[in-house]
UniProtKB/TrEMBL annotation:
Belongs to the NOP53 family. Its main location: nucleus. Residues 43-73, 142-264 are annotated as: Disordered. One of its GO terms (cellular component) is nucleolus. GO terms for molecular function: 5S rRNA binding. It is found in: Nucleus, Nucleolus; Nucleus, Nucleoplasm. GO terms for biological process: ribosomal large subunit assembly; rRNA processing. This is Ribosome biogenesis protein NOP53. The keyword Lipid biosynthesis does not apply. Residues 221-230 have a biased composition (Low complexity). Keywords: Nucleus, Ribosome biogenesis. InterPro entries: Nop53/GLTSCR2 (IPR011687). Residues 142-166, 203-220 have a biased composition (Basic and acidic residues).
Length: 335
């Protein structure tokens, strides 16, 4: 029943009207934020708001200029680096910003030119001295190959007289003497006698004397080195000069190796055979000149020499029928 002003009972209060949903959870979250703020830690949600840039809606998009406008900026379509147009922060967040290319990738794998010009002696109508110089170079290459082949044959060669036979094995068996029982007994391990106390003390005293002698010798050498400062300085300068000379040699060797093919695979690079014509094979005109070599092989060897591909071997297969080479009638008419 309702209580009036004169009644002794208090008025009923609605408890649900003063309660808030998740009040305890919100209070704990507010306390945690205050504790982090006191330590100087910014919450993740606030950090996102600080990092995000406000978008200005009033700014209009840049109007694209017509192609026939003479006042437009010049743009090179063959340029290697692309021009980044746009906000750098936007490009970074969207992942559209290009990664900086390492400087090492811009270096060429070899300093050799793509097409090497043959010497003057390799022309179809060379002068005498240039042709002789080319022949001398080809001769040195063949001599080097012959020496390597002779060296391998010499290492693999053997004397036929030193070959083992049944008779020689029987003679060796007869010459080997038989072991007697006395010799076996003499070779047995002898038990060492136990050392006495006096012998152990004597050995200990000798070791102490040896250590003392070495320490005195080391101290004497250190004192002598103090009086050899000039000679020590001279030796240090000599070592520094030798080090500089070695560094120069190493640098020169590295520069020379840049023009040499590197080991890219399991096979070693084999240079192409020199295409040289003898004096009696020289043609007087282009009509009489016979084709030599292969352009495909030359390009393939050039790629290997410039470290663009690794040296390879041709796949081995068994041909059933022999290849027959025939000169066509048109080729015979030219020659």
């Amino acid at each position: 029943m309702a209580s009036g002003p004169g009644s002794s009972f208090p008025m009923k209060v609605n408890v649900l009207a003063h309660q808030k949903p998740n009040a305890k959870k919100l209070r704990r979250a507010a306390q945690r934020v205050e504790q982090l703020a006191a330590k100087g830690v910014v919450p993740r949600s606030q950090k996102r708001l600080l990092n995000s840039q406000p978008v200005d809606r009033k700014v209009k998009k840049a109007e694209t200029q017509a192609n026939n406008n003479p006042e437009r900026d010049f743009y090179d379509i063959w340029e290697q680096e692309t021009k980044e147009s746009g906000d750098p922060w936007y490009l970074q967040q969207t992942g559209k910003k290009l990664v900086k290319r390492p400087e090492k990738l811009n270096e060429k794998p070899s300093v050799l030119p793509a097409v090497e010009v043959i010497a003057a002696g390799g022309s179809y109508n060379p002068d005498f001295f240039s042709h002789q110089a080319l022949l001398q170079e080809a001769h040195e290459v063949e001599v080097k190959k012959k020496k390597e082949e002779d060296k391998i044959e010499k290492q693999l060669a053997y004397n036929k007289e030193d070959r083992a036979t049944e008779e020689s094995e029987e003679e060796e068996k007869e010459e080997t003497p038989k072991d007697d029982g006395e010799e076996v007994a003499a070779g047995a391990i002898a038990v060492a006698d136990k050392k006495t106390e006096r012998q152990r003390k004597k050995e200990k005293a000798e070791k102490m004397k040896e250590k003392q002698r070495l320490a005195e010798r080391r101290q004497t050498e250190q004192q002598q080195q103090l009086f050899q400062l000039r000679s020590i300085k001279t030796s240090i300068k000599q070592q520094e000069e030798k080090t500089k000379i070695r560094q120069k040699r190493r640098k020169a060797k590295e520069e020379a190796q840049k023009a040499q093919p590197r080991r890219l695979g399991k096979l070693k690079f084999q240079p192409q055979h020199m295409e040289v014509q003898l004096s009696d094979e020289l043609a007087g005109s282009l009509r009489q000149l016979k084709p030599e070599g292969s352009v495909l092989t030359d390009r393939f060897k050039s790629l290997q020499k410039r470290n663009l591909i690794e040296p390879r071997e041709r796949a081995k297969f068994k041909r059933r029928l022999k290849v027959k080479y025939v000169e066509k009638r048109a080729f015979r008419e030219i020659t």
